Amino acid sequence: MIKEIKIKNFKSLKALDLSLTQLNVLAGLNGSGKSSFIQSLLLLRQSFANRTRNVGLILQDGELMSLGSGKDVFYQYAGKNENLEFEIKTAEQNFYWSFEYSPDSDILPVVEISLNDFSYASLFNTQFQYLNTEHIPPQMSYKKSEFQVIKNKNIGTKGEYAVHYLAEYGTSQKIKAPHLQHPQATSDSLIHQVDAWINEISPGAKLIVKEGLDAVHLAIQFETEHGYTDDVKPINTGFGISYVLPVVIAILKAQKDDLLIIENPESHLHPKGQSTIGRMLAYAAENGVQMIVETHSDHIINGIRLATKRQLLSPANVNIFYFDRVLNSSYSIVEKILIDQHGELSNYPPGFLDEWNEQLLELI
User: Fold this and answer.
1) Distance between CA 272 and CA 306 in Å, rounded?
2) Whose CA is closest to 141, among 209, 207, 217, 208?
């Protein structure tokens, strides 16, 4: 598990030092540095997951993202002789990187790098899953990947292999984690657990997965007083179920010591569904999964708070990091918010969970 991350001179992250726990929630206004924090981890993974690729920090045409050249990622007001630096501390090892500023290059040269074994860190091995904000939209059929699903147990950065994963492991993978076993599921198999959680988010929905030679087909049935409807294609059911399906699968399939990074899991969800995802994140954290979650949803955060109040998540296993930006020097600052055993927050920075109250006060 990652215990601490230090970042220097990456985009708006002039000097950042965060101590992480199991569930780490990134909150804050747009442009405050949340995505930059996640991008720093993704850049390190795409540059060094394969230990033989020590050519430098790969900024362009990487497997996870493309960010341009050195001038696009180096903090604008850094000193002339300063470097771009990252340090990651885990329970077992410390990793350190320093990169030279090269404004027009899409690969930043290495100045210094630790010689630790990367294969033991979840950021660099197959115990890693990242879901970005651009989930694959509803499809007529979903593509398969033996490499990602079978070899890496990965559902893709857009959830594009989530349906294939469900077809492959739906009956064989069992969900044993306490609290993640949905009480309404007919068994502990992945497919039945996914069905139960999706049903809580979209009542009456049931997934039908059929694997073909070159693609996987997904259909949704809806419960009625006479049984279930005929199969309905995802393209005819809106975006909500299709968008949340990879999130539900990613949380359920994650094992102890995995690293799961999710951006905006609340997309296209009703507030009740957002709260459900918040609870699921809390349950996975208590099971030993490490998560970094970027969200703008009060309901996600409140779902986590409720899990803490119900004693289903230890307060020590969750941090909220509120990102803000110093305008005159354009760098990010981060305020840590803790949750106690009653679900109460330790502090409320300006701009955090206050928009509802401010609008309500004006309306009344």
Assistant:
1) 13
2) 217
